[in-house]
Amino acid sequence: MSKPVLLETGPMMTMVSTQLGQAFATHRLHEAPDREALLKSIAPDVVAICTGGHTGVKTDAAFQARFPKLRIIGNFGVGYDSVDVVAAAKRGIIVTNTPDVLSEEVADTALGLLLNTVREFGRAEDYLRAGRWAKEGDYPLTRASLRDRKLGMVGMGRIGQAIARRVEAFGVPVAYFSRTKKPDISNAYYGDLIAMAKAVDTLMVITPGGPETKNMINASVLEALGPRGILINVARGTVVDEPALMAALRNGTIQAAGLDVFWNEPNINPEWLTVPNVTLLPHVGSASIHTRDGMGQLLVDNLVALAKGSAPKSPVAETPFKAW
Ligand code: 8YV
Fold this sequence. Notes:
Blueprint: E1 5-8, H1 14-23, E2 25-28, H2 35-42, E3 46-52, H3 61-65, E4 72-76, H4 85-90, E5 94-96, H5 103-119, H6 121-129, H7 132-136, E6 151-154, H8 158-169, E7 174-177, E8 188-190, H9 193-199, E9 202-205, H10 219-225, E10 230-233, H11 242-250, E11 256-259, E12 278-280, H12 289-308
Parallel strand pairs: 1-2, 1-3, 3-4, 4-5, 6-7, 6-9, 7-8, 9-10, 10-11, 11-12
Helix pairs in contact: 1-12, 5-8, 9-10
Bound molecules: 2-keto-D-gluconic acid.
2-keto-D-gluconic acid binds at residues 52-54, 76-79, 102, 283, 285-286.
């Protein structure tokens, strides 16, 4: 019997491609000399798509519609904003993501970025490497410290809770904003983002991307955060209004920001490189070998479930699995 047909929309880790190749007849969109020709020839037979935000391919309703036999879309990453899950749900297509295996890693990154932003470690290291310590004396004392801060979480899902635990261990009180109050979480809850931004001086953004949260951190939120304000974003670039943030950093509306995610990755706005009070990371939230291996294996397990006729491990809430 011939293997079921799977499309990879972009480069995947070797361990992912190798294992998928054992269960499926795989085709790689990114390696095709003529993408359109490849899609036309395989579209009638494709039952599985392997994708991820990093591929740059939007698995939207129009893209999904090209594959009449499509049953599953496996997304590399916990965030699946590049997949239209509403369109998938309508056709009974299962969408899977990679939750849990990356929560602690992303939380570590969030804390690293927070500390770096507050205490300027990156800039202090640049100062040392440039030979300025011996010539010019000690690096200036940082204006900011975690010692007198209050932090507001924008989003309190699994990664948010892992971040909050760490922040509290540093002695910093944590409040949170989300659409609904979570009964099992005792931190101060705000249903109004502006009210929380006024009450704290540090915002940690870890909410899903997509149209619902687009530009949620806008000029009004930054104004409410105020001149001691620090914004950290480890969610999606789309959640923050970038021009508003850049202006707020330049004119002192807030003090500093730390960003792991941007509009138009990896081709970020080059103007960011000229803003001194921002710490910039190239979307490395989950990027350790240990954690990416865990994500890759979960992605494989989800997709291979179709070939085996078993239940996928982590379907997203919008497309619950019943049967193949
Ligand atoms: C990865 C991420 O960079 O899990 C996510 O949602 O943003 C990151 O872990 C991304 O999945 C790579 O496609």
